[in-house]
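Sample intake sheet
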Amino acid sequence: MMSAPKFLLLYKPVLLACSLCLIAVLSACTANRPSAHIAPGQAEQGSAVSGRYPNLFAQQGYSQQAINDKINQAFNQLFYGAPDSQALYFADGSNASGAKAYIADINNNDVRSEGMSYGMMIAVQMNKQAEFNALWNWAVSHMYHANPAHPAYGYFAWSVGTDGVALDEMPAPDGEEYFATALYFASVRWGDGAGIFQYKAKADELLQHMRHRSIITGQTQRGSQTGTNLFHPEHAMVRFTPDLANADHTDASYHLPAFYEVWARMGPAADRAFWQKAAQVSRDYFSKAADPGTGLTPDYGNFDGSPWAAPWRPESADFRFDAWRTAMNWSFDWSWWRMDARAIELSNRLQAFFVSEGLSSYASQYSLDGKKLDNTQQSGLVAMNAVASLAATGPDAGKFVQALWQLPVPEGHYRYYDGMLYMLALLHVSGQFQAWLPAQTDKTE
C-alpha cells in the first residue's frame, strides 16, 4: 500500500488538512486495494478497513516474485493442468449467457456448490473474470432452483452430476454464503453486467432468500421435503441445512462472520443489523464449539455449541473434514475486522495441539479431546492450519506457514477438496484474499 509522504511540522492544522486530502486521493486512486469506511472510535483497524493485508509468506522471508509464482502455478495447475490428474476446472460448452465451466469433485464424480463457490471466490481474488463468469453461468444453469414450488427455491442444489442432473436437490448453506460474497466482490472489482452478471442484484436476491425464504413443501428426488430459510431467525445462526427435518443444527465451518460483516455493509439495508448480529453470534459460537484443551471443533453442532452426531453420520461429532475450515473462518475474520480477540487464543490453542502431535506427523481426523482417528496427514488440513496463523501469536505460527509453502499443489484422485483449500490458503496467507468493498460503506445505524 502507498503511504502519504512526511512533511515538516510547520503548522499542525494545515498539515492535518493536507494529509487528510492526500489520503482521500490515494484511497480513490488505488485500484488494487479495496477500502472501507473507518468506524468512529475504532482503535485498531483490520485489513478490510485499512487495506493492509498481512503477507505471512513474506514475513517468513519469501520474495514477492516467488510468492506470486507459487500462486500462479497453483491456479494454472488446478484450473488448466492435466485433466486426468491435475485439473479441477472443466469447460462445458456455452449458452445464451456465454461460456460455462464447473469445478469437479473427482473422488465423488460430481459438482458441488461448495467447490463452485470456492472457484468463483478464487477467480475474483485473482482477477479472472472469464473463469468467474463461466462458473456462475454453470451454477445458475444446472444448480439453481427457480421453481417457486420447490422446497429449495432460491437456492442451489449442493450435489449435481457433471452432466448437470441433480443428485441431491437441497442446498448446503456454505455454497450460498460463498456465492453471495463472491458476487458482491465481483460487483466492486469489475462492475455489474447484464442478465445473470448483474452481480450485486443477484447477491442481494440470494441474501433475501437466505434470510427470509418462507417454508415450502414440495417433491424432490427423495420424496416430499420441506425447506425453510438458511439462517435461523432467532438464533441468527447459519443452519446445517434448510431441510426442516434437520434445520435446527449447524456446522462450525459454515460460520463466516467475515462475510456477514460484508453483507452488513453491502447487502439489502433492511437486514444489515441482522447480519452484524449474525457475525457476533458466530464469533461466540467458535468459542463455545472449540474444545477447551485442543481447540478442535466438530463437523456438525447444535446451536448451543455442543457436538451433533447426525443419525446417518455419527462421526460428525468429531473433528473431521468439514471442521478443518473452522480455524480459517475465525482467523481471517480477525485479520479483516479485528472484532473479537478471542480468535487469537483459539488459533494459539489449536496450533499448540498440532505442535504437540508433531508438525510433520499429526493426523487429519481426531476426537475433540485429541485422540487420533486416522494416521494420515492431508494437505487440506495443513493449508487450513497455516491460515490460522493470521490470528495466532504463538512461537510456532511461522512453522505452519512454512509447512504450507513446502506442500506441492495437490493432484491425483483426491485433489478436489485438498486443492480448493490449498488454493484458498495460498491467497489468505499471501495477503491476496481481500474484501472488495465500495470506497465507502456504512455500518448499520
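Comment: The chain has 15 helices and nine strands. The longest strand covers residues 98-105.
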